[in-house]
Amino acid sequence: MSVKVRKNIKMSVLNNYTDDFLQAAKEAHTYRSMRHICTPEASHVEIAGPAQTRDVLLLASNSYLDLCNEPELKQTAAEAVLKWGTGSGGARLTTGNKTPHEELEKTLANFKGEEAAITFGTGYMANVGTVSALCSKQVHRDGSISECIVFSDELNHASIIDGIRLSKAKCYVYKHNDMVDLQHAIDEARTILTKEQLATTRYLIVTDAVFSMDGDLANLPELQKIAKANNCLLMIDEAHSTGVLGKTGRGLAEHFNDKGIPCDHADVTLGTLSKSIGCEGGFVVGKQNLIDFLRNKARSFIFSTAMSPAMAQAAANNLKFIEQHPERVQQLQENVKFFCDALVKAGAVPTSSRLAENQESAIVPIVIGDEAAALRASAALQEKGILIPAIRYPTVAKGQARLRASLMASHSREDLEKAAKAIADVLKGN
């Protein structure tokens, strides 16, 4: 009887905590629920409803090149499962390292123009493992200790933030894409260090390449100048730029070089296999010694079961497909320009907007502000057959709720024009 009472007390405490949190979320219009999509990821999907399924235009996918449902790639993935089975059976450092993992890492390094690559179970794990490994306190062979100071853009992804927290490194958050504020933060950080600390402290600047909620780009050329001038390492997360930016989808450095702005690779380049590449997993590319270091230091790599070899093979095949079909990347970029222009013409954004000229990533935010209003707009669009989610706090700042449209290479001009008009109509209350 006493055991039962204790259980009830524990459950009461848990219920009080969870119920209070959930009720507060509902009142603030930040409560989250999931849609049931019952068809593969593609430009059009079906959402299961109480009575029937409904076809909708998907303007919410990170599968920017629409490779998840590509017939040729599905067939090669199925063949990989038949050959390699459904799981890896262990961590990469025990029994999980299979031929497809080796092939994927070679393909990634070649695609990104780097010496070597290492893969993780997810992009989130890649960031958490890499940042915490690079920024944690280091005890050297002679017994000396060195620490790291991190400079992080205020709009960086949660996985970068969590990696910094896990490392316990001192962190300065600089204003979004503000190079003056970044330099100020670096100068400020050094004023509080002793002479000995100045000689041993490591510095890391870390930033998203494409910011996932605003869709704007990091200023890689200026970041590289600041990093070089201040002896900082530079790390960029190319989750939303690989397969999207540059003539061949190589990412942020290619994008700037295409514009005639000389740009090198960052010291550490991270990315994901789950967006443009259309599979699962995360990766880091760079110098061989960086990859060797992460293999021996990154806890999310060492202590995790490897991704299934079939998925690794599928990712390698998908990446090769992107290499062989740069026109898919270019079609995506053309769709972005067309959609932004259509939004302006339809009146979904001010006619004075330079959105069509300035937008370069596949993420197009339409800021509404109020959380409840954003939810209503998203629901109204779904009723019109268009799926665009409402993004709310804490994903974005309070009062910055938005519709976050993300485009695919396979969207037709008709799809995009229809969506732009529907968005304008909903925002005007039609």
SSE layout and pairing:
Elements: H1 2-27, E1 44-48, E2 53-58, H2 71-84, H3 92-96, H4 99-112, E3 116-120, H5 123-135, E4 138-139, E5 145-146, E6 148-153, H6 158-167, E7 170-174, H7 179-191, H8 195-200, E8 202-208, H9 220-229, E9 233-237, H10 252-258, E10 268-272, E11 282-286, H11 288-297, H12 299-302, H13 309-324, H14 326-346, H15 355-358, E12 363-369, H16 371-383, E13 386-387, E14 390-391, E15 401-406, H17 413-427
Parallel strand pairs: 2-13, 6-7, 6-8, 8-9, 9-10
Antiparallel strand pairs: 1-2, 3-11, 4-5, 10-11, 12-15, 14-15
Helix pairs in contact: 2-13, 4-13, 5-6, 14-17
> Overall mean pLDDT score?
93
Number of strands: 15
In DSSP terms (H or I, runs of 4 or more residues), the helix count works out at 17
User: What is the approximate shape?
Assistant: globular
Gyration radius, to the nearest Å?
A: 23 Å
Give the helix level as a range of percent. 40-55%
Largest sheet: 7 strands, mixed
Q: Structural class given helices, strands, pairing?
A: alpha/beta
End-to-end gap: 62 Å
Major sheet: arrangement of strands: 3-11-10-9-8-6-7
Proportion in β-strands: 15-25%
Which stretches of 5+ consecutive residues score pLDDT under 50? none
